[in-house]
Every structure is written in C-alpha cells, then in structure tokens.
Amino acid sequence: MKKQLAVQTTNTPTPATLLEKAIEKGVDMGQLKELMDLQERWEKKEAKKNFLDALSRFQNMVPSLKKGKTAKINSQKGNFSYKYADLGSITGSIKGCLLECGLSYRWEFQEANNKMKVTCYVSHRDGHTESTTMEAGLDASGYKNDIQQKGSTHTYLQRYTLIGALGLSTADEDNDAKGHQTTAESVEMTEDEILDQWKQEVSNCKTQVHLTSYYLKNKKTVDKDEKIKKIFKDREAVLKLESQTPTMQLP
C-alpha cells in the first residue's frame, strides 16, 4: 500500500496580507500608514524585478538588427557615408518580442537653444518604467531646410534612445547567401577623423597658389566651419615662413 506524503508549504506573508490582518485586528492609523508604505515599496520592488526579468528575456529573444540602410552625408566638414538600421526596421523587428514580454515604449521631445532632447521610456505591464535620454543639435547636413533638419534629428535621437533603452545590438547585412560578395565599406566618421582628413589634404598644398586654389574650390564648406578655416590659416602661416615672401591673404 502506497503511502501518500503530504507536502507542507510555507507561504511568506506579503505586506498586503499583513495589511489585511492589521485591518481585521483594528490597529491604529499610524500602524496602517506604515503598512501601506511598506506595501507600496514592496510593489515597486517587485515591479522593477519583473521589468528586469522581462527585459532580459526580450534581449535573448530579439534578433540582432541589420544595418540595411546607407546614409550619404554632404556636410560642411566633408562628405562621407555609413550604414545604419532605420527606425522602421527596428520597430518592426522588436514588435512581437516586446508584446510577448509585456514591454512597451514611448518618446517625449523637448527643443531649446537650437538643440533637441529625446527621452525614450520603456515600461513593463506591472508598472515599472526606465528611460534613456539623448540630445543633439539640428542636422544641417545635406543642405536640409529647417523642417527637414528637425525631422532628421528627431528620427536619429528616437532610433538611438530606443536602441539604448532596450539594449539592442546591430549587425551588418548578412552576405552569406550572396557568396560573400564584397561591398564598398561604409564607415561612420567622427568629427576628429573628418578634421584629420582636412589637415592631410591641406598639408599636401606645397605653395600659396595651391593652397588658395584649394580654398576657393571648397570656399562654402571652409567659411562655414571655424575649425576647418583654422587649418587653412595655420597652413598659410607655415607657407609664409617657408617662402619669406608676401602672399595673398585668405579671407
């Protein structure tokens, strides 16, 4: 004859159960307030724990984002291009995983002193919310008008705050199915790297005539940027010292 073993479980009382018992016993208002505060703190702690659990599960589920778009930038600091994952493809890729994990997101926007600030809020269905904020100046690349500059900056900040808030990772396009075809490499350049390129090009100007010709060729770009203009002025000073003859002054 089989013996049935009774499993005894011990339920740890929660602040909510303690509060119910306190009300039944008719404790004073001071004790009730303390228990209510305890319950609120406990709920917040549980909500944050559930949020982190859901975010961890989401990050394990969501695929790496492919950089399927290429941006070509014609800026006052030079021309360059880079690959990126656009906002539409990001939101489309993560929609199902977010829903399954009980997560959602939204943005808030602020604009002041020619700068835009975007905050991305990620929330869990249990109530906990965390945020990531970024700000940037208006995107003046590519000769955009004011509305286009604002729209471009909005989209850029939306994309990167969402990536940061959710801990997403990006990957280059998968070329395995194309037999490892070689494509032109697109690299996102920093301002310092762009200025270094300008320094290299200007240093190749060995005479004042050559320098002036190169300046006139890029006059619009140079005149809009004080750092690039200084590179030309510094090179002009060096050429003056080398030649020790009167030269045409750059504006």
Descriptive tags:
about 250 residues, alpha+beta, Double Stranded RNA Binding Domain, 3 domains, three-stranded antiparallel β-sheet, two-stranded parallel ribbon, 8 helices, 7 strands, disordered N terminus
Summarize the SSE layout with pairings.
Blueprint: H1 15-25, H2 29-61, E1 65-66, E2 69-75, E3 78-84, H3 87-101, E4 103-112, E5 115-124, E6 129-137, H4 146-166, E7 170-171, H5 191-203, H6 208-217, H7 219-223, H8 226-243
Helix pairs in contact: 1-2, 2-3, 5-8
Q: Strands across the major sheet, in which order?
A: 4-5-6
CATH third-tier fold name of the largest domain: Double Stranded RNA Binding Domain
- Tell how many strands the DSSP assignment holds: 7
- Secondary-structure class: alpha+beta
**What count of domains describes the coordinates?**
3
Outline? elongated
* Unreliable segments of 5+ consecutive residues: 1-10, 173-189
Q: Write down the overall mean pLDDT.
A: 76
Distance between the termini: 105 Å
